[in-house]
Amino acid sequence: MDHREHSREAALALAEGFGGRAQYIAGRLRSGSSGRTHPVVDPATGETVCGYELAGAADVDAAVTAAAQALPDWAGATPGERSDALHGFAAALSARAADLALAESLQCGKPIKLSTEFDVPGTVDNTVFFAGASRQLEGKAAAEYSGDHTSYVRREPVGVVGSIAPWNYPLQMAAWKVLPAIAAGNTIVLKPAELTPLTSLMFAQAATDAGIPDGVVNVVTGTGPDAGEHLVGHPGVAMTSFTGSTAVGRRVAELATRGVKRLHLELGGKAPFVVFDDADLEAAAHGAVAGALINTGQDCTAATRAYVQRPLYDAFVAAVADLFATVRLGDPFDPATDLGPLISHAQRDRVAGFVKRARDYATVVTGGAAPDGKGAYYRPTLITGAPQDSEIVQAEIFGPVLVVLPFDGDDEGLRLANDTPYGLAASAWTRDVFRAHRATREIKAGCVWVNDHIPIISEMPHGGAKSSGFGKDMSAYSFEEYTQVKHVMFDNTAVARKDWHRTIFGDR
Ligand code: NAD
């Protein structure tokens, strides 16, 4: 038995260990009660790994009740106590690092080197970050702004948070949603995508093992229209935090607005990658290939539209085509695999549909096909010659597809970069400090990299502009979403009749 078979076998045993239960409520793994089952499928083989009963409204209700019951004690804990619990959580996750990577690779088809080197350590680092950050929460220091009063600001948890996550980075999305919420004293009900529940459940189990009280972290796994909408509209939920597509985000926003709920939306992206004519071509070409293909292109910040200034254009296209040919598609459990399958055959067909339609108006330079075999694989695909207003340039494809287009002046490059509804992430490639500063200023996005594309760090905020949503994940900025500020004002005069009462009592 080689290493791959051994890993898949271990991952399948982990999935089997859930015994068809994919709800985690009040510190206990439970079966759903919707009466409908859903499979977890290995996208590398197309085979069902396990099945589970989906959450129905009753499960969401039970999870919200558990979160509400846990709220007073958790919100009332000292920052130091919450910090200790989160440090324990980080240790519990580290102890399960290998299992988390196996389960993530199994349910997503993610290359094991990506799960092991990116998803799991990123999650542990986030947990350690929020263990520290939970002790840094502060309001505005007290002062006598009116002269006669002392004012200060309390920063308080919002209450029970309902979060909804996508399937592309299930473990990291669980971390991004849960950690700032609980570090700030909220409790949470997380709904992972129904395709990928395993690592969200393991994440919640690690919280319990670390001594985080039952009910602080709950997971309900159900479909979006069913469990998702019930969670967003639930009267016991004070805030909705959603990561997913812009189309579903709109629906979630409508429901949350109806309930006058606090809302945080992390939506789709179509990141531009702007290469100026003084850029390091080797760096830009490698950056574009890694930035476009990470997680098989199923990354909201992936490089999707490369605009290359005319003098470098032909060389850039040739370099990217050559590098695409070196990327190794394969079994996610093979440590040598660079590119795994897409999340599902349906997603693969969706990506293939975009490329098929693009053939009518653009050139497919490399790729544009699925390899033989059972998995949901698709070859790295390079497209040129597409009009700026075409579907392949404007729509989020969420697959291993990069469009490369030329531009002439700097104004044109920056204008094209901003010319989609999205504004999540972008990069500028240049050795000219003035060009770099101008690009970072003028590109409308939540993040602009210079001479790199993709790296994220726990200390810095992640979130979008325009149709990519609003609000921040990670970093101390995320506390703005998960806390509310309360003004407290004390009268210092001890006078019964205040000056301002004249507005009511006339001259008396
Ligand atoms: P999706 O929008 O289809 O689903 C996301 C989640 O919403 C899932 O849990 C799904 O079950 C749930 N959902 C679906 N319909 C719902 C409804 N009517 N009410 C409530 N919940 C509902 O997205 P996806 O296909 O799982 O993930 C890919 C998308 O996520 C891409 O658009 C990608 O850009 C986006 N994404 C964004 C970020 C970010 O940080 N901005 C990060 C990762 C992924």
From TrEMBL:
<keyword id="KW-0560">Oxidoreductase</keyword>
<comment type="similarity">
    <text>Belongs to the aldehyde dehydrogenase family.</text>
</comment>
<dbReference type="InterPro" id="IPR016163">
    <property type="entry name" value="Ald_DH_C"/>
</dbReference>
<dbReference type="InterPro" id="IPR016161">
    <property type="entry name" value="Ald_DH/histidinol_DH"/>
</dbReference>
<dbReference type="InterPro" id="IPR015590">
    <property type="entry name" value="Aldehyde_DH_dom"/>
</dbReference>
<feature type="active site">
    <location>
        <position position="266"/>
    </location>
</feature>
<dbReference type="InterPro" id="IPR016162">
    <property type="entry name" value="Ald_DH_N"/>
</dbReference>
<feature type="domain" description="Aldehyde dehydrogenase">
    <location>
        <begin position="33"/>
        <end position="488"/>
    </location>
</feature>
<dbReference type="InterPro" id="IPR016160">
    <property type="entry name" value="Ald_DH_CS_CYS"/>
</dbReference>
<protein>
    <submittedName>
        <fullName>Gamma-aminobutyraldehyde dehydrogenase</fullName>
    </submittedName>
</protein>
<dbReference type="InterPro" id="IPR029510">
    <property type="entry name" value="Ald_DH_CS_GLU"/>
</dbReference>
<dbReference type="Pfam" id="PF00171">
    <property type="entry name" value="Aldedh"/>
</dbReference>
